[in-house]
Design goal:
Blueprint: H1 11-17, E1 29-30, H2 34-39, E2 61-72, H3 75-80, H4 82-95, H5 102-106, E3 112-119, E4 135-138, E5 149-156, H6 159-172, E6 179-185, E7 190-191, H7 192-205, E8 210-213, E9 217-225, E10 231-238
Antiparallel strand pairs: 1-7, 2-3, 2-9, 4-5, 4-8, 5-6, 9-10
């Protein structure tokens, strides 16, 4: 009997089993879905949004905020990896106008993968310090939902890290699921040569990119848009000996 992949140790296998990836061979154009058009496209501005606040909503934002437990990903570590930067450089050359490049600057301090989404607004993280967590960030992945967002699957490097993350999820009442870090946004439908180039880049770099990261802490974050451009970290739980 086939072994069910662990979504924390092998997110790419779990996503493949779910058939969640965008069907590149079944299409010749990547069309942004309705959810992406409503909740992502309105947020693609050149300037940062003002601080988190009630009563001042733009299209694509919501109130009350949604609380989630997230793991920050150090963007500087990603950008220091030669394979990852090669992917970005080739993407810029092949499909530059299709990508919201200002997002790299606006979201540099906000890159994260969600461990437990849509928690009760009064949720708090318990305990003082957690054990270190070792993660690997993989290459680009696009899904059937929110088609238009380029994600980076994130996996636990070892079973000890996976067990700890599973335990945190269990305490928060969140079910198992692969971890994805939203990284880049498309600005419109992609077709023709740019579609073929994006498809080939995803296939070439998805498993080739393997960036090791050791997050310093676990965040409890409140956000009022899907790109966390307006958000606040309400609690940090340190991961001991991280760094």
């Amino acid at each position: 009997m086939a072994t069910t992949p662990d979504p924390l140790l092998d997110p790419l296998a779990e996503l493949a089993a779910q058939r969640a990836e965008f069907d590149w061979d079944g299409h010749d154009v990547l069309r942004l879905d309705d959810r992406y058009r409503r909740r992502h496209l309105p947020l693609l501005h050149e300037s940062p949004r003002p601080p988190f606040a009630d009563g001042d909503l733009s299209p694509g934002e919501y109130w009350p905020p949604i609380r989630s437990a997230v793991i920050p990903i150090d963007d500087a570590v990603l950008r220091a990896d030669t394979c990852f930067t090669a992917f970005l450089d080739e993407l810029r050359d092949a499909a530059g106008p299709c990508v919201w490049w200002p997002g790299l600057r606006l979201r540099a301090e906000l890159v994260h993968t969600t461990l437990a989404p849509e928690l009760d607004p009064d949720t708090r993280l318990t305990g003082d310090v957690l054990a270190p967590v070792h993660l690997i960030v993989r290459g680009p992945w696009l899904g059937r939902l929110n088609a238009g967002r380029i994600y980076l699957p994130v996996q636990a490097t070892d079973t000890a890290s996976a067990r700890q993350l599973t335990a945190v999820r269990a305490r928060l009442g969140s079910p198992p699921r692969p971890m994805l870090a939203g990284y880049l946004q498309l600005t419109g439908d992609v077709h023709g040569e740019q579609y073929a180039a994006l498809r080939d880049l995803v296939r070439r770099y998805q498993r080739r990119v393997q960036v090791a990261v050791r997050p310093p802490d676990l965040w409890l974050m409140d956000t009022m848009d899907d790109l966390v451009l307006r958000s606040r970290v309400v609690q940090r739980l340190p991961l001991s000996a991280a760094g």
